[in-house]
Amino acid sequence: MSMVRVERPEAGIAVVTLDRPERLNALSFDLVDDLHAALDEVGADNSVRVAVLTGAGRGFCSGLDLRGIGPSSVSAGLRPPAGGMRSQAHIADLGPHLRRIPQPVIAAINGPAFGGGLALACACDLRIAVRSARLSVQAVKLGVSGCEMGVSYTLPRLIGGSRAHELMLTGREFDAVEAERMGLVARVVDDGQALDAALETARTLLSYSPFGLAMTKEVMWANLDAPSFEHAVHLENRTQILEGTSGDIIEAAKAFAEGRPPIWGS
Fold first, then answer.
1. If residue 18 lies in a helix (H) or strand (E), which one and from where to where?
2. pTM for the full model?
3. What is the pLDDT of residue 71?
4. Residue range 173-227, pLDDT digits in tens
């Protein structure tokens, strides 16, 4: 039975739910396998334009399951260090996988997001958290580096290097209000409202051109690595001209003139 549920509550929206509530959705290798499969499914579904990632029960994701991580499906038959490297890469690729799918992904942080759970949230495109949520990099407390699952890349880009260093070196917990203040989450909502708030945001995104929305995600991530301002502008320029060939901008102009919502192509 899968430890990740994929549901489509409304046209154009997929909700991906980590479903190990008894362990606060901790990352076992089975859950990692199932999440990769779920992201493949959503990414290949052209009817889905926005995805939401959340956790079942009272937690988002409590990080690596230290009580029974079990063998990895990708490292069977390999001895250390090759097996360990293969398993580590499989877990760590969840962040880039979230980035690779064309749909914007909204993290609905419904409870604790520790270690790998925080890394997953940081790899999403938007984050909404409930007021009681607690977050932590955490890994540094476990005798390993705090730099895991891409968080040393994503976190400084979201909140700045100085704050990221402090959180990663100390491993301290912080709450949703502080996360919003530092710019890590876009919105704090009452407990139990994370998914509803994420769906509300998803509906806003659905009102925009499908291709324009996908290109906004792609160019934003690409330009985080742009070597210069001019490189970033050149990529934007080419994307705008490419989008212009779709006819969406003509439809947007007509809809504005006629006082109606645009009717986008697929």
1. strand 13-18
2. 0.94
3. 65
4. 999 999 999 999 999 999 999 999 999 999 999 999 999 999 999 999 999 999 9
CB 13 within 8 A of CB 51: yes
- The domains of the chain are located at 4-206, 210-258
Cβ-based neighbours of 247, under 8 Å, separated by 6 or more:
265
**Bond prior to 156 in cis (omega within 30° of 0):** no
Cα distances (angstroms) measured from residue 192 to each of 40, 57, 109, 177, 204: 28, 10, 10, 16, 21
pLDDT per residue as tens digits for the range 100-144: 999 999 999 999 999 999 999 999 999 999 999 999 998 888 888
Return d(Cα 107, Cα 193) in angstroms, integer. 13
Domain 4-206 has CATH 3.90.226.10: yes
Phi first, then psi, for residue 38 (nearest 5°) are -65, -40
Going across the sheet that includes 126-130, the strands are: 4-10, 13-18, 50-55, 105-109, 126-130, 187-189
Q: Which ranges of the chain would DSSP assign to H, the alpha helix?
A: 29-44, 82-92, 94-100, 116-123, 151-159, 161-170, 176-181, 194-206, 210-224, 229-244, 248-258
Q: What is the DSSP letter of 64?
A: B
- Quick one: average pLDDT of 40-62? 98
Q: How far apart are CA 62 and CA 105, in angstroms?
A: 19
